[in-house]
């Protein structure tokens, strides 16, 4: 006795000439197409419409969402963070960046003593900026510099110092030297 579920059903269609035809339809394929349409669109449904729908539809939708949740939970967050770091700190001559893309806040260690900071990593940033006072906490020696920096949005920030060849170490253990511009007002550290 075969216990496999029959996934084919016959449906009756009337063609353009008015002739009644019987056609075999794969239920799984049809359900997959419906799921794709439902997930790709916004649909307003009344409670009555929801209750009329097949319970099988909701079971399959629940299974689909559980599979997506499992695949999201299985992602190694440290591996993703490492890939983002490697992409951001790769060879600048090979990268063609035409726009700013903030990747998020990332844990890094600043200076020889390894002072922990959480800068915003931005692939489009032209300057590495740190707020005044943070360089002192990290034990860095700053060269005085007086200039105004105007951002793409029109805001203006006073730059009061420059810290050159500052060692920075990532959570992955990789490191390099960077230049940091010290901003007078409270700003996010941006790399």
From TrEMBL:
GO terms for biological process: proteolysis. InterPro entries: Peptidase_A2_cat. It comes from the Eukaryota. GO terms for molecular function: aspartic-type endopeptidase activity. Residues 117-154 form the Peptidase A2 domain. This is Peptidase A2 domain-containing protein. It comes from Austropuccinia psidii MF-1.
């Amino acid at each position: 006795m075969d216990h496999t579920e029959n996934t084919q059903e016959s449906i009756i269609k009337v063609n353009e000439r008015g002739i009644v035809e019987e056609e075999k339809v794969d239920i799984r394929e049809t359900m997959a197409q419906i799921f794709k349409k439902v997930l790709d669109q916004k649909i307003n449904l009344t409670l009555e419409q929801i209750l009329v729908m097949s319970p099988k539809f909701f079971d399959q939708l629940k299974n689909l969402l559980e599979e997506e949740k499992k695949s999201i939970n299985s992602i190694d967050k440290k591996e993703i963070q490492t890939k983002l770091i490697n992409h951001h700190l790769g060879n600048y001559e090979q990268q063609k960046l035409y726009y700013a893309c903030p990747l998020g806040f990332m844990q890094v260690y600043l200076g020889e003593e390894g002072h922990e900071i959480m800068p915003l990593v931005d692939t489009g940033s032209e300057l590495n900026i740190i707020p005044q006072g943070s360089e002192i906490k990290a034990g860095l020696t700053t060269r005085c510099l007086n200039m105004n920096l105007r951002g793409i949005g029109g805001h203006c920030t006073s730059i009061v110092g420059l810290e050159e060849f500052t060692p920075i170490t990532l959570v992955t253990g990789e490191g390099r030297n960077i230049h940091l511009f010290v901003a007078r007002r409270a700003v996010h550290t941006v790399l």
